[in-house]
Amino acid sequence: MLVGLDLAFRIANGKDWFGYKTTASPVYILQTEIPQAPLRRRMIKYMTGNKATSEQIWFASELYFKIDKGWGYAELEKELSRTMPKVLIIDPVFSSVSGKLVDDYDMGQFLDKLDMMRSKYKIAIILIHHSRQAEHSEGEVFHYGSDELFGTTRFARWLDTIIFVDKIRDDEDTGLVDLVLTFQKHRHTESKLSRIKVQVDRNNLIFTEGG
Fold it and tell me: Which CATH superfamily hosts domain 2-160?
């Protein structure tokens, strides 16, 4: 939701995203994991809590959509031609492809198709992807940067920016969740980007910096 909802609405409305400026741009979100009914409930809760609305966002809930297949690519192209977004969010990667995430060739085919879309439609592409299971030892949790991405190493090589979202606290009594966003890769910046602390209230899906 931090990316699939919050970032999408902020981009569509040209609002800052935790200190980073955005340019008001149409956004297309392909959601291939959550059915329409619960996705709609989340959207309504977010829009109500944040008093957010936009005619610049398109949501598609397609549970059997596979971009690496010819038919899936063709259908997504039709949607991009119809809506002409500047940003495409694919959420999540694992259910948007039919190939094996660990197979270098399969994911190469998927990323090649994204490159064709990026070139043809002049869009920015945001992938929401899962990490591997964290390693634990003597009560400590170990993270390994961009190597956390589940699947082939092609993902880390292809992406310009990688942001790791770590859940620090999830209070069931208050509904408050503390997150830390770490920039694990930022190809086009000259200096190191600082971590961002974010708090979300599950009761209204309001995201605030700090916490």
Answer: P-loop containing nucleotide triphosphate hydrolases (3.40.50.300)
